[in-house]
Amino acid sequence: MRFTRKIAVLAIATITISGIQAAQARPKAKANELVSYSVIHAIPLSYGADVVDVYANNILVVDNATPGSIKNLTISRGNATISFYANGIVPGPTTTPLLSSTPTYLSNGGNFSFVAHLSADEKPKLSQFKNMVTEAGSKRSWLTIRHVAAATALQFRTNGNPVFVPLANSIERKRSLAFGSYTIDALYSDTSTVAINPYSLSLQKGTNVVLYVWGAKSKGNLAVLKQDIGARD
User: Fold this and answer.
1) If we measure between CA atoms, which residue out of 202, 154, 146, 191 comes closest to residue 173?
2) How does pLDDT run along the chain (233 residues), one tens digit per residue?
3) β-strand 140-147 against 207-214: which pairing, if any?
4) Does residue 67 sit in the same domain as residue 136?
5) Residue 217 falls inside a structural domain
């Protein structure tokens, strides 16, 4: 009986140790896994941000960014603060950024855009968006439109047909569309006044498209910036 009991104890110990080893063998998440993000300078000229430097967690990531530029970057997952400084100004106890995000957790597999732009009343602001990285389905792609211009609400159209409800400043909308060629334009909401002339684009497999409408209505310079986001099944 004692011999049998010893065998049982040894068997339990072996199982326990094996379980511990199995648990230890599970791969741990790497602290240096990278997250994709973009910084977009969409403040038009003459608003105090003609040339800027962009910092991520006080590390310079974009030097001498100019209006209309998009820079795609990667960063280790975790909290990130994205700041835009006037050209040549560096982070420090006596310096202040033009714009700065709140600390934001950037997670594995995510894709984020930090956009410096104007509010509806022409004040510089920073907006953050999370980009769609999955495909919309068989033979379809996501089209996202973001209103980051100093302008009233805009009614967007695809191939002349209204799409979405009118978008206000800092608001985004997305929908899936079949692969193919499209024209996108926009009217000022509740009017027939053209805000954006027809813009041609192609939707295809493996890519989601983001369009930013930026500029200032008062300057008559509203324009479109296009960003391609890699999409996976």
Assistant:
1) 146
2) 444 444 444 344 443 434 434 334 434 435 458 999 999 999 999 999 999 999 999 999 999 999 999 999 999 999 999 999 999 999 999 999 999 999 999 998 899 999 999 999 999 999 999 999 999 999 999 999 999 999 999 999 999 999 999 999 999 999 999 999 999 999 999 999 999 999 999 999 999 999 999 999 999 999 999 999 999 88
3) parallel
4) no
5) yes
In a domain, 15, yes or no: no
**Structural domain count, the chain:** 2
- On whether both 121 and 186 belong to a single domain, the answer is no
Same domain, 55 and 137: no
What is the model's pTM?
A: 0.85
Q: Is 184 part of any domain?
A: yes
112: CB partners within 8 A, 6+ apart: 35, 36, 37, 38, 104, 106, 128, 129, 130, 131
